[in-house]
Amino acid sequence: MNSSSDERFAAVDGCTARIVDAPRVAAVRERMPAAQDLTDTAEVFGLLADPGRLRLLLALLEGEMCVCDLAAVSGQSESAVSHALRLLRAHRIVTARRAGRMAFYRLEDAHVRMLLDLALAHTEHTQAIHPERGGTR
Predict the structure, then answer these.
(1) Which residues face 106 on adjacent strands?
(2) pTM given for the model
(3) pLDDT along the chain (137 residues), means of 10
(4) What φ, ψ does residue 116 adopt, rounded to 5°?
(5) Fewer Cβ within 10 Å of end Cβ, the chain: N or C?
(6) Cα angle for residues 15, 21, 23 (degrees, 5° grid)
């Protein structure tokens, strides 16, 4: 993109007034979560942004699984899976159940499932704009 294109976009995206719709700005500010809540939410999205961790979470959509099965499904080492699960557990994205020396992991709650389901639906919905991917997994 050249500088004249950049200037055109800046002109279209820029505002000539400091605030156009003051009541809407006030209402949105009122509903805006606290700074710490925004930080915590951003951390959750950061955890979901890693393809390896995302693979584990998608596997857990099918139900509870042990570390060795998650490693087999995700193509990662058991050590890498354990590390990822520790991070996810620390942020209450997954929870574990112990059975002797085995640990079985599952999604923490329905909110995580909804986030994953929505993200997958969004990806499927937008595949048409990525024809170069050919729709394969």
Answers:
(1) 95
(2) 0.75
(3) 53 76 96 95 92 96 96 96 96 95 93 91 78 61
(4) -65, -45
(5) C
(6) 150
User: Both tokens of residue 31?
Assistant: 């509903």
Phi, psi torsion values for 21, nearest 5 degrees: -120, 80
**Closest to 116 (Cα-Cα) out of 94, 89, 90:** 94
Q: What are the structural domain ranges in the chain?
A: 35-133
Distance CA 121, CA 34 (A): 29
Q: State the Cα–Cα distance between residues 53 and 115, nearest whole angstrom.
A: 14
The CB-based long-range contact list for 19-23 (8 Å cut-off, 24+ gap) reads none
Nearest residue to 59 (alpha-carbon basis) of 17, 116, 7: 116
Strand order in 102-107's β-sheet?
Answer: 65-66, 102-107, 94-99
Looking at the DSSP bridge assignments, the partners of residue 95 are 106
Distance CA(62)–CA(70), nearest Å, equals: 11
Q: Taking the alpha carbons of 81, 82, 83, 88 in that order, is the dihedral positive or negative?
A: positive
